Amino acid sequence: MFFKDIIGQKDVKHLLLQSVKDGYIPHARLISGIEGVGKLPLALAYARYLCCTDRHEDDSCGKCPSCRQFNKLAHPDLHFVFPIINRKKGSSKDLYCDDLLPQWREFILKNPYFSLQQWSNFIEAENSQIMIYARESDEIIRKLNLKAYESEYKIMLVWLPERMHPSCANSLLKVIEEPPAKTVFLLVTESPDRVLGTIQSRAQRLSVPPIDEASMSEAVRSIIGQSGSDSEISNIVHLASGNYLKAVDAITASEDRQRNLELFKSIMRNCWRRDVKNMKAEAEKFAAWGREKQKAFFSYAGNYVRENFFYRFNLPEINYINADETAFAVNYSPYITEKNVISLIDEFALAERHIEANVNPRMVFFDLSMKIAVLIKK
Ligand SMILES: [Zn+2]
User: Fold this and answer.
1) Ligand 1 centroid to residue 78 C-alpha, Å
2) How many angstroms from the chain centroid is the CA of residue 47?
């Protein structure tokens, strides 16, 4: 992670860079802000910059031995503490952060913007709460007593100190009060008020604001590509309210919607033409989708039929369809009438229940297509 990879946060980046140039390196920073604003990426870019042996004006060099180790998050002077599960399934061995370090590195390197829930899913915590256990304090102290291997600074990055067991937090406090020389604590928190008060007061507070709209628009466009319309992008940026994770969720939802619309269009064309061969081919494809997606499609289709019925009344305030859905509705809506609207909606709902009840999806899909072929011409 480099400063250049961070979405927005110009002022925070500037502050961090400037502090290093001024030689002002607080021994503990509490980096706070809501989810999805880039606190962990900022902490990582800052740690890299501190250790870089050939710092450039605005970022680390990317080439020195320290930077190369940072590329794999495997710098010997960079230590991580983060919430984990107590034990692996079927094992009686208590886990330490270091046991999950390979997964932690892999997860961050794939995408440093993530939520506690995503991390928790990744390590298969299932329903158990993950936390930083009391036993971790011995490890923290042991690592701080190691002498710095290669760089000038030893860095202890704690992700979500609010999830720390109180006895571990107390040991951490003691070392923060009397830190070993050239040690930097980076505490990345979403709930600074839940961090031990005495730790808060000994750390330099750095608040990371929501991501600004211009930077978020740029990030959204880089995901959805040039095909995204301005209104679609501004919609997503608005929904995200400065949280990049929310933006990604909104993009995924809009991709699901697009996929459902394409299938719906294809079903309607096949049904209108009574093209049995293509109906069968679509049923095959649909069967490979997975149950949740299949159910979501039927639910979507029922709603979209209803929207098409209302579309003819020309009441935009009760219509909830996007530009692509509207484009199809222009020609399709005349076929949804008082004679078939209720039956069509009922058939999609029935298909959804059948999927829920584990009926063969090919059969559900094909039967439904045959019924629509009749209903659509009523
Ligand atoms: Zn470097």
Assistant:
1) 14
2) 23
Query: Does 201 share its domain with 328?
Result: no
pTM of the entire structure? 0.79
Give residue 125's pLDDT band: very low, low, confident or very high (50, 70, 90).
confident
How do residues 129-182 score in pLDDT, each as one tens digit?
Answer: 899 999 999 999 898 887 767 778 999 999 999 999 999 999 999 889 888 888
Could you give the CA distance from residue 104 to residue 108 in angstroms, rounded to a whole number?
6
3-state SS class at 5:
helix
* Pair (317, 367) in one structural domain: yes
- The pLDDT tens digits of the residues spanning 330-344 come to 999 999 999 999 999
| Sheet of strand 204-207, all strands in order from the earlier edge strand to the far edge | 78-81, 154-159, 183-189, 28-32, 204-207
What is the average pLDDT value for the chain, to the nearest integer?
92
Cα 349 to averaged position of ligand 1 atoms, centre (Å):
59
Count of H-run helices and E-run strands, the chain: 16, 5
Ligand 1 midpoint to CA 111 (Å): 21
Half-sphere exposure of 48 (CA within 13 A, CB side): 29
DSSP conformational letter for 95: P
For residue 300, report the distance from its CA to the centre of ligand 1, in Å.
Answer: 51
Do 175 and 268 fall within a single domain? no
Residue 226 pLDDT grade (very low, low, confident, very high; cuts 50, 70, 90): confident
Query: Which residues lie near ion ligand 1 (Cβ < 5 Å)?
Result: 52, 60-61, 64, 67
> Which residue range is the domain that position 261 belongs to?
255-375
Does residue 298 sit in helix, strand or coil?
helix
Distance from Cα 211 to the centre of ligand 1, integer Å: 27
- Domain identity same for 314 and 218: no
